[in-house]
Amino acid sequence: MALGALVVLSIVGTTLVEYATSNAGNASRSGADQAAYALAEGGANAGAGVLVNNAHPDVWTGHPTQASPATITYSNGTVSWWASSLSCAPEACWKISAKSTVRNPTGPKAAAVHRTVSISMKVVRHHTNGSNVGNYIYADGDIKVDGGAAIQEPIIAGGNLDMSASSSANFIMSISQLISVRGQIKTNLGYIGNGPTTTLTAPINASSSSILVADATAFASSGTLKIDNEWMKYKSHNPTSFSIATDCGTGTALCRGFGGYGAPPAASHSTGAVADGRLHEIHAALGCSPLACNLVARLFSATTPDTTPISFTKPTFDQTQAFANAAPGPKSTNTCTGTSPTGSFSTFFDNQSPASAILDHSISTPINLTGSVYDCIATAPNGTTGEIKWNGTTLTVHGTVFFDGDITVGSDLT
Q: Is position 413 within any domain?
């Protein structure tokens, strides 16, 4: 199975103002306070503008630091601004801080007036047309889902979507939201969406691990649900309840508030709330096979499937840049544990050392990403961090991972 995941980036931000006040002795000092705040705010906005216009805002190589800030001089004072990364994997987040300095008008020996403003900004991955979901799986040709796969991203294909006839344990989970193909959807034995809708028969709170419902019989054995605005992942169900999965995050973290950075958090929901297992939309230019889409028992869509694929422009992929800055990848500093699928972690991403590696498809034998248990985390030359991990049941990828050769997936995966 060869799939390409492509993303473009946009930025959203919130502002946190941090400053300390002291009693102003007179109107002049009050004016200096206001001027200092205005300068600090302008400095933070200047830093935000630099981030927004950066070609790779998710890594922002060479950004000013607190130890070496950027300084802007105005007629009434100066402002220094800098950036620091925030932890919000798998996205990239930045805190932009600015500190102003304005002369204190109360006297020549009075300490200068300072104000500090901070803006927190998140780099959001999305594509420019169609679904508003973040990442997605794209192929110019066909996409085949096999081997017990559970896909959690939108699927966009220039050919067919083949759910495979060899297993009933293949799922396009409802959190995927979108399927758009220019060929057929070959439904076979797989689930497209996780089920219809049902209603809660008892209220739940943010830590509930069991969801009581009116009827869960038509739902897939495992999958995702949306209740009000909250996504959650379930591991099993009986006719009147869902059991929430515990394989999200570290330890036994409940899969509540599911969906990654920016997803609505776990919340309370009332009796009668709708639990929705459907995809949002399905578009297949040549319909479904062997049955029409509206006759497929395991196809669940909130809107009627149609034959008009979404308008989609494939983003340009900079292969050279990805080779140089992927983490893990041929040029990154990789720290791996477990057993390499290639026999040695030195040949997992490239057959050459990081210092001498060039983009030349040096790995001649396809790499089975699910051939052995491993965990590789890395830092690229430009500061990008990421991870790829196979624990025997789940393949986890954070960031951009680059293999200088072909890859395969040869085991069941989620």
A: no
| Cα distance between residue 20 and residue 89, in whole Å | 31
214 shares its domain with 185:
no
Say what the pLDDT of residue 319 is: 84
Q: Which two tokens stand for residue 19?
A: 């400053």
Q: What's phi and psi for 126, nearest 5 deg?
A: -160, 165
Question: For 307-404, where are the E strands, in sequence order?
Answer: 333-338, 363-368, 374-379, 385-390, 395-398
Question: Residues, the chain, total?
Answer: 414
Cα maximum dimension of the chain: 86
Total tally of structural domains belonging to the chain: 4
* pTM > 0.85: no
Q: Are residues 381 and 402 in the same domain?
A: yes
Q: What's at 166, amino acid-wise?
A: S
How far apart, in whole angstroms, are the C-alpha atoms of residue 74 and residue 156?
50
Tens of pLDDT, residues 23-49:
444 556 677 888 888 899 989 999 988
The confidence band for 251, taking pLDDT boundaries of 50, 70 and 90, is very low
Query: How many CB atoms are closer than 10 A to CB 31?
Result: 15
Q: How far apart are CA 217 and CA 239, in angstroms?
A: 5
Say yes or no to pLDDT of 178 above 50: yes
Look at residues 104, 140, 111, 99 and name the one whose alpha carbon lies nearest to residue 31.
104
Regarding whether 213 and 80 lie in a shared domain, the answer is no
CB within 8 A of 251, min separation 6: which ones?
A: none
**Domain range for 48:** 4-126
Average pLDDT over residues 234-258: 83
